[in-house]
Amino acid sequence: MAEPRLAVIGGTGAVGTVTLRLLRERGYDHVRVFASARSAGREVEGFTVEEATHDALEAGGIDLALFSVGTSASRELVPHAVRGGAVAVDKSSAYRLAEGVPLVVPEVNGDRAYEHDGIVANPNCCSIPLTCVLKPLHDAAGLARVRVSTYQAVSGAGAQRMEQLRAEPVDEHNVGVDWTWDGDETDEESKIRAETRKILELPDLPISANTVRVPVLVGHAESVWIETEDALSPEQAESVLRGAPSIQLVETPTPQDAAKTDQVLVGRIRPDRAAERNGLVLFLACDNLVKGAALNAIQIAELILARALV
User: Fold this and answer.
1) Phi and psi angles of residue 21, each rounded to the nearest 5 degrees, phi first
2) Residue 1 resides in a domain
3) How is residue 96 annotated by DSSP?
4) 125 is catalytic
5) Which pLDDT tens digit goes with each residue over 157-213?
6) Active-site residue 126, yes or no?
7) Is there a single domain that holds both residue 277 and residue 154?
């Protein structure tokens, strides 16, 4: 096929602008940018913004559409892009757990991207780095149980929250629990569990998550406690992860070091002294706007486009 015709919907937001920068860096020039009516006509990363209307998305001329909008907007707009002939890669939670919609981390289950019926879902910004780490460990020793505590930057809540943090370094809007409740846990915690199970194709994996927002601009961090079916020493785990895609072993991962990188930084791998057997603890950090969102979606798009060229 000719050079792919791409579109970024939500191109003026925190993830959308990173998506445009990465596309430009990767040599994609045929990119249309869509956003709300109030942003139409603006220039973003050298692209002129169009209004994201139903008619514009259905008109055709788009091979692959990267959606960086909220859940309700995705539910409204994605079907129109698909009807116009585009494959939609959606970064919201709208389709992640929908039956028949692949939920893809290319390093983990990239082949699932080819099973789409017009829509591929991009996972949560904590599920992506978590499954990048869990998959090679599962392949090596089998996962028996996972517990994770996440420390999520304000950029995960959008560009406006980033500006709030810049203006007011620490206040009640930038710390604490920042999601709606789903019973006795947040919807973010239940998303991480459900998405991790779907991506790894381990529907019965015991997994518990605890999520908090922290006063950091960019970069999510996670403490992870893992129990494996077979014994796996910290040294063996390091060896496994050293050879895994998109993983970089470091002594102590930090959000600052992870910012603007493509890698999931992993370190502090040690025995879990509270586990009854085969327990490991580790810490990871990842740029939630890059690998945690924009880059993962672009990698999905490139898988789909590469298959179309065969």
Assistant:
1) -65, -45
2) no
3) T
4) yes
5) 988 888 888 888 666 666 677 899 989 999 999 999 999 999 999 999 999 999 999
6) no
7) yes
